[in-house]
Amino acid sequence: MQALAALASSNMSLQSMIEDGQLALSSAEHEALIEVEMTTLKA
Question: Does the pTM exceed 0.70?
């Protein structure tokens, strides 16, 4: 959670990448890697 909090700022610009069940978020100063479970939703 602290890694995500470090990404927050008033003028934040984030890059994201989802690959092999992991979500990577990065800004100019920080990076966070998050394990996620993907679920397919049906309409």
Answer: no
